[in-house]
Amino acid sequence: MAEEWDRLWAPHRIEYIKAGAAPHVDDCPFCRTPTLSHDESLIVKRGETAFVILNLYPYNTGHLMICPFRHFGNYDEATAEEMKDIADLTAQSMRVLRKVSGAHGFNIGMNQGSQAGAGIVGHLHQHVVPRWVGDANFMPVIGKTKVLPQLLNETRELLAQAWDDVR
User: Fold this and answer.
1) 152: in domain
2) Angle 11-17-23 (CA atoms, 0-180°, nearest 5)?
3) How far apart are CA 44 and CA 117, in angstroms?
4) Number of domains in the chain
5) The domain that contains 148 carries what CATH number?
6) Secondary structure (3-state) at 126
7) CB-based contacts of 147: which residues, under 8 Å, 6+ apart?
8) Residues 6+ apart with CB under 8 A from 63
């Protein structure tokens, strides 16, 4: 009997599964990312205590994450300054995504703990996923495939260029 779902191989995920816990700070991609160039890292904007980065495996075009520079796993461990920076960068991300992509709405959230679905458990990050009327078309429903119409570096460049112009 044929299986209904095709498989999407994601071998990069095995390191998280093998680790069984939060990555050590030396292995954390969100700690390593700020040491790279913006093009290599997909960083859109750096704040005082946090940065905005495109998700390497987006749910939609423009899927951003806000990550503190400091390595910690839960929101209640954030300082007041980190909470403010994460909130401000989230609000600015929404404004920029509306301007650049015409987003109609957003899914915003944090998965804390592996049981809650966090892919990188040890480093807090908040997702900002732009949504549009009709963005869940037949491809994911019938074809079990998500279509992303723009390359990540092109999306990063558009968002970074618009960042300081939008208030």
Assistant:
1) yes
2) 105
3) 24
4) 1
5) 3.30.428.10
6) strand
7) 137, 139
8) 54, 55, 127, 128, 129, 130
Tokens of 9: 């191989």
Supply the DSSP string of 89-103, one letter for each residue. HHHHHHHHHHHHH--
Asked if residue 73 is part of any domain, the answer here is yes
Query: How are beta strands 126-131 and 43-46 bridged, if at all?
Result: unpaired
What residues have CB less than 8 Å from 153, skipping those under 6 apart?
39, 42
Residue 2 lies inside a defined structural domain of this protein = no
Residue span of the structural domain in which 39 resides: 12-163
Element (H, E) at 128: strand 126-131
User: Is 3 within the bounds of a domain?
Assistant: no
Q: What is the pTM of this model?
A: 0.76
Each residue's pLDDT tens digit, 64-119? 999 999 999 999 999 999 999 999 999 999 999 999 999 999 999 998 877 777 77
Q: Which of the residues are catalytic?
A: 125
DSSP calls for 71-85: --S-GGGS-HHHHHH
Cα–Cα distances in angstroms (integers) from residue 135 to residues 56, 65, 86, 102, in the given order: 19, 20, 26, 12
Q: Which amino acid is at 51?
A: F
Give pLDDT tens digits for 107-160.
Answer: 999 988 777 777 788 899 999 999 988 776 655 655 666 667 778 888 888 888
